[in-house]
Write the structure tokens for this entry.
Amino acid sequence: MNYKPNESELMAYLYGELEGEARTKVEQYLALHEDERISLENLKSVSNLLGRVKDKEVIAPPIFIGDAKQHYFWDVPYFKTIMSIAASLLLVMMVAYFMGTQINMSGNELKISFGKQPEVIPVVKPEVKPTEASLTATQVQEMINSSLATNNESLQTSFEASQQKLDASIRKSLASNSGNMDQLIREASTASQTQIREYVAGIQTENMKMVKDYFQLTATDQKKYVEALLVDFAKYLEQQRNNDLQLVQTRLNSMEKNTSVFKQETEQILSSIITTVGNPNSTRGNKN
Amino acid sequence: MVDTLLDIAMMHADTLVIRAKQGDQPAQGKLVQLWYKRIYNYAYKFFLDHDLAMEVSQKTFISMCRNLPSLQDNGRFKSWLYTIAVNYCREEARKIKGNRAVSFDKVWNPEAEESPQWESSRQRNENPERQLQQLELADILQEALMELSVEQREVVIMKEYEGLKFREIAEALNISENTVKSRMYYGLDGLKKILDRKNITKDTLGYEL
């Protein structure tokens, strides 16, 4: 058993303030633990010793509380509460009086109003003659029927009149409109045959003119162009011929020069040959 | 502790407290008469000083009369009254601690035979020899009490002399019941050590008496 009472439990046990199971537990523990029991007994002996000190006798001096107020009945809290409620009610009533509050309750209606109630002017109702009241139900029915009949008639007549007026106006407008329309259509149909022909002819002539002009213009342009082309080609050919001629000329000139040089050389050779033939020493020397 | 059974009954009578709460001055006077001795003895054991005990008692009862209407639970009157007394005791203790001037009684070795305290605490209306012995034992025990810390002293006095239950002490000191019991344990333990030191045991006392 691992139970060990703490200081609080021991004190409660010592002063008899521990009861039931806790008390038996402590008792069992103390029975098992001699040293603990002795130490508790020592504490108990200290407690007994303390008990030997007697109280000192003293006479209570009269205590006067100088500022103790006499308690009047209006100092009782209940009275104060009731009075405060009454005072607040009175205040509410005073305010209500000055504001002219009126609370009316009639039937299921609760009405709270402030200020003066506006005077209700009684509405003067036209007095209904009591003689009218003697009509029977059939009479009333008849009256209603007759008034309905008159009403229907008047409606019928007005409806018919308006219908006729409408018809007339529609016819009138139709007649005028159809005349105009026919005239327009006829004009259009008569005018269209000749006009179309004229128009087509005009278009044809215009087209012809245009094509002619176009061809003429193109022909002249082409002519000019071809002419220019031919001139240019001729010029080119001429230039080419001139160039060729110049080339031939220069070639010829160079050939001429060559032939002349050759001629001179041959002449020289011939002369040298001739001289050598005539004077063999000199030719040898020349040859060397 | 209390003189008659009637007084015991009166002390715990809620009716008296209720009447006193409503401002009934005779009821308040009766309450003072009934509880004055208890509060005085508590304060006396706390200070070991008659004048301080009287001062604390008077302050406590003046405060009681003024604040009774604010007492919520009449059943807690006892612990409430001790709370007031404890607070005044602590206040006076603080004053003494803060005061540099120390009374002659405190300076004088109280164990000396010619102690002025010994003389001042003399009572005259009993058998002088027995009275002397009681007085000596009382003085020794009181001195031992004074050596305890304030917290332990409060609990020990309330339990041993005022007979309050641990719950009531806890209420009066506004601490937990376990703390009260713990303080009581260490208070008794401390007292035992002090008495051992002074060589006072049950046997020696028995012999002396």
In short: The CA atoms of residues 144 and 193 of chain B lie 9 Å apart. Chain B touches chain A through 50 residues (CB under 8 Å). The first helix of chain B runs from residue 5 to 11.
